Amino acid sequence: xxxxxxxxxxxxxxxxxxxxxxxxxxxxxxxxxxxxxxxxxxxxxxxxxxxxxxxxxxxxxxxxxxxxxxxxxxxxxxxxxxxxxxxxxxxxxxxxxxxxxxxxxxxxxxxxxxxxxxxxxxxxxxxxxxxxxxxxxxxxxxxxxxxxxxxxxxxxxxxxxxxxxxxxxxxxxxxxxxxxxxxxxxxxxxxxxxxxxxxxxxxxxxxxxxxxxxxxxxxxxxxxxxxxxxxxxxxxxxxxxxxxxxxxxxxxxxxxxxxxxxxxxxxxxxxxxxxxxxxxxxxxxxxxxxxxxxxxxxxxxxxxxxxxxxxxxxxxxxxxxxxxxxxxxxxxxxxxxxxxxxxxxxxxxxxxxxxxxxxxxxxxxxxxxxxxxxxxxxxxxxxxxxxxx
Length: 389
What we know:
This protein is an alpha/beta fold. The protein has three domains: 2-108 and 230-297, FAD/NAD(P)-binding domain; 111-225, 3-Layer(bba) Sandwich (FAD/NAD(P)-binding domain); 316-382, Enolase-like, domain 1 (2-Layer Sandwich), CATH 3.30.390.30. Helices cover 21% and strands 32% of the residues. It contains eight helices and 25 strands. The model has no long low-confidence stretch (mean pLDDT 96).
């Protein structure tokens, strides 16, 4: 069957749904279609590892795509883009003719070469599988000590599971946090009952147990892996679009084809404040990029000039962050209460490249402005620039 729409969106996640809403607002008469390979309508991802394990409700995660009037094809995967003909072919054999196309295909979890049945936490179905397994007393092994691994481990422990964390680094989120903060967070997790095993990785799985790099075995009722994602760029590559750690887009989120846009986890965009192109795998980036892409597709001048922020909840700790969090950079720490409330600045060549707001709220805008300043900055003139309470 052949379909024709003014705007076609590949991907029914947060970026795609935000684009559909923006398109409808900008162009009430436009025809819109969205192809999503999951069986579920658009939903927010962050609650899957955070709010839904506390007091969040599943009915609150669904995004308002229905009111856009878009045709939404679920369980439908785009398999080819014919740029010359402005046609997308899906895995059902249908073709979709478009005037403007948005690629918002997100990313796929990195996987281990063993361990059939592991939960590579990414989707609503992954959450449902883990919800079924996460009964009080269940033994849950979490592979990965980064953003997703630390959130899942905290959520499982708060729901009465016996949690073991495995990761190659020396401490939780060691690649992002300054060493003293990473060590403090690791100790905090242990105080909360999590068996944290830095420097230990899984080498194999057999008989309901993980074979570990220290020679031991770990029995587990469920294994959850949070190893990051790789952007789903295969469709774009096959179509001949420019790809470099994501689909390369300009400030209007246009790819190397002026009628094809990209947004969300899959898009590598110019970040003026950082002076380089980046790709961000967080909610704020997906939603704001999707919204700007939708407006641009509808003919508005809506450049993406925002530096995304992200956030996390870890037991009673929480933070917001802007820019680059890389523990290899010079860091300046400003604590009200050490490792419980404060600000961490990340410096490179006298410029602020990132800001970690640790249990410090309502300072994202100020952090963005600081990152945009030319400096030069050092430990002496940075402390106190942002309020740490």
